[in-house]
Amino acid sequence: MEIMTQPIRAGVPVWLLPAGDKNTIEFFFVHTGELEIVLDGNVVTFGPGDSFYIKGLGQELSLKTNKDSVLLYVSSSLVYETSADFNTELTRLVVQINDKDNYTFRHSRNVLRYSIKLFERLKTYCKDDNVSNLATAALFHDVGKCYIPDEILKKKGRLDLAEYKKVMRHPIDTAKLLKPHFNEKVVELAQSHHERLDGSGYPFGLTQEDLSIEARILAVADVFDAMTTERGYNEVKSFKDAVDEIISMPDKFDKRVALALASLVEEQAFGPE
Ligand SMILES: [Fe+2]
C-alpha cells in the first residue's frame, strides 16, 4: 500500500503508467485545484473533493491541470512510477522542450510507450524486475536536446558535420541533466540510447558487452519511433517496414528486442499507425 500527496503545477502534464499487477487499485482524491483526465479521447474534469479509482490500468493515462493542484493518491501496491514523482525542474524541462520542439516531446512519449511494452515482453532477460528505470530513461532520454540550437534541431534536410557533432552531444547533456535527480542506471540508460551493438553508435561507441537488455530496448524504441514519425525531412515508414529494417540489422539492434517488437506490431499493440 502506498499513500502520497501529489502536488502538480498548473499546465504540467502528468502520466500515470500501468502498474505491473493487474489487480492494483489506485485511488485519487482531488484535494485542491482541478484535474483533467483524458479517457478514450474525452476530457473529464475533477474538482476539489472529487475522487475516482482505477483498477488494473492497462495503458498510460494522461492528466492535465489548469490550476496548481494537490492530489491524494492511494495505491494498493507499491507504485513504481508516476511522472509526477519527477523533479519539478526536469518536468519543467520537458515542458520547455515541448515549446521548443514539439517533435521531441511527442517522440519521448512514444519511446516511453514502446519501451514499456517491450520490457513486458522481455522481462525474463531483464535484470530489473520493474520498468521504473527504463521508463524514466525513456521519457527523459532526449532532454539534452535543449542545448541544440533551434536552427539545427529544426533543420530540414541533411546536417553538415559541424551540426551533426552538436547533435551527437545530446546524450552526454542528457546524462548531465539527469544525474542530480536519478540513479546511475537511469543516467546510463538514457545516455546510451544511440549506442549500437557493433560499436558504431555514439557518444562513446560502446559495444554489446556494455549494453544491457534495457539499453537495447531503449535503442530499438527510439529508432522505431524515429523511422515511423514525420519529422519534416524523412521518409516515414510503416510499422511493419520499420520492424523489418530493424530486424535486418542484428549487428546493431538486439534480435530478441527486434522480434518482440515485430510481435507487438503484428498484434497491433501500439494501436493504429
Ligand atoms: Fe536522441
Multimeric state: single chain
The hetero compounds bound to this protein are: fe (ii) ion
Secondary structure: helix percent: 25-40%
Strand order of the largest sheet: 1-8-3-6
Taking the alpha carbons of the first and last residues, their distance comes to: 37 Å
The CATH superfamily of the largest domain bears the name Hypothetical protein af1432
Key phrases:
273 residues; alpha+beta; Jelly Rolls; Hypothetical protein af1432; 2 domains; 10 helices; 40% helix; binds fe (ii) ion
What is the strand and helix layout of this fold?
Layout: E1 2-8, E2 14-16, E3 25-32, E4 35-39, E5 42-46, E6 51-55, E7 61-65, E8 69-75, H1 88-100, H2 102-122, H3 132-140, H4 150-153, H5 161-167, H6 170-178, H7 184-191, H8 213-228, H9 239-247, H10 255-266
Antiparallel strand pairs: 1-8, 2-7, 3-6, 3-8, 4-5, 4-7
The chain binds fe (ii) ion.
Question: Could you characterize the architecture of this molecule?
Answer:
- The protein has helices at residues 88-100, 102-122, 132-140, 150-153, 161-167, 170-178, 184-191, 213-228, 239-247, 255-266; strands spanning 2-8, 14-16, 25-32, 35-39, 42-46, 51-55, 61-65, 69-75.
- The chain is of the alpha+beta class.
- It has two domains: 2-85, Jelly Rolls (Sandwich); 88-266, Hypothetical protein af1432, CATH 1.10.3210.
- A four-stranded antiparallel sheet has the order 1-8-3-6, with no helix packed on it. A four-stranded antiparallel sheet has the order 2-7-4-5, with no helix packed on it.
- Helix 2 (102-122) packs across helix 10 (255-266) and helix 3 (132-140) crosses helix 7 (184-191).
- Residues 78-86 have low confidence and may be disordered.
- Bound molecules: fe (ii) ion.
- Fe (ii) ion binds next to loops.
